[in-house]
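Hey, can you fold this one?
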Amino acid sequence: MRIQPLTIGMFADSYLPEINGVVTSLVSSTRELRRRGHRVIVIAPSHEGAVDDDPDIFRLRSSPFPFYPQFRMAFPLPAKLLATLPRMPFDVIHVHSMFFIGCLGAYLAQFRKMALVFTYHTLWTEYAHYLPVDPGFTRAQAVWVSREFCNRATRVIAPTYGIRELLTSYGVEQPIAVLPSGVDVSVFASSVALAPKIRAGGGPIALFVGRLGKEKNVDLVLDAFDVAARRIPDLRLFVVGSGPHEVELRRHANGLASSPRIRFTGALPQAELGAYYAAADAFVFASTTETQGLVLLEAMTHGVPVAAVDCAVSREVVAGESGLLAPERAQDLGEAIVALVRAGEDERARRIASAKNVARPYSLEALTDKLEAQYAQVRTKSSAAL
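Sure. Predicted structure:
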C-alpha cells in the first residue's frame, strides 16, 4: 500500500560523481521515491566540476580524504546552507554514513525530534588500513562508533541478515530491519545492445565490477583468473572500476602469464554497465567485507552465474544454482570460474534461470515498497513519542 507523499532528507558523505555501491543505492532509491511522488532532498559533499541541475541537491564544501583521495571530507560550509537545513520541511531524515554529513542529519533529527533512519552500508572495521594509526585501535573504535550511531536512530536498516546479526553483536539495541538495496534494471537497458561488440573477437568473458580498493580482494580475482586461463586458453577477464589499489592491481596483472587477456576498463557509469553484464559468462567476486554486494545482484539480474568466495554475504545472496561458492584460495575460485564457463547447455540454462530468479525479489520497485513501509512506521513511532 502506497503512503502519502513525504519530504525525505537523504544525508550522505558519498555521492555523484563518485561511483560505488552506496551512491548507486542512494541514486536509485531517490529516483524511484521521486517517481512515486515523494520529495527527496539530497545533502552531499561538493566535487570539483560537479554541476547539479537538480534544485533538491545541496552540496557542502569538501576536500579529498588524505589517505583515500576518492573519498570526500565535507565541512560545515557554506553557513547559509547550514542555517537553512533546520527549516527544510523534512518528514523523515535518512542518513547513509557516519561522517560529517551523516552526523549532521542525525543532529537535525534529534534537534527537530523527528524520525531518523540509518542504513549501515559499510563494514567500517574493514577500512582501518586507510588510516595511519594502529589497526587494532581503529577496528575497536569502528565497532564503538557503529553501536553508538545505530542506537541513536529510530530505525536501522541492514542490507542482509548477516549484517543485522553483526550489529546486534556490537550491542545495537534499536530495531534493525533487513532491507537490501534494489537493482534498477532500467538503468542498464540502454547499453545491453552493445554486448556483442564487447564479445567480438575473443572467447568467453569473466567479469569483475567494483571499487579497486584493497578490501575488495581483487588480487585474488586476478590470481583465480590466471588459474582458469590455463584451462581455458581464450578466456578473458574484464575488470571494471577504479580506486586506490588500481596501480598495484595493474602491476600484479602485468606479472601474470594471462596478462594479455586481462583488461582494465576504468570506472564506468551505471548506464554503460549493462553491456558488460550482458556479455559476461561468469561474474567473479572475492570480497569478504561487503554488507550486501550489490554487484552480485546486478550480475544475476542479467542472468550471469557467479563465482564467489564463500562468506556470510555471498552465502546469503548467491542461492540455488545461481553460482558457485569457493574457499578464499586462487585455485578453488579459479576452478569455480572454469566450472561455470564450461557448463553444458542444460546446466548453463538452469544457472541463468536461477540467477534471474534469485535476483527478482531485489528489484528496485519491490524494495522501495518496503522502504516506504519503514518510513511510515518510523513516522508513526516518532509522532507517538511526542
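The chain has two domains: 7-182+363-385, 185-361. Let me know if you want another pass with a different chain boundary.
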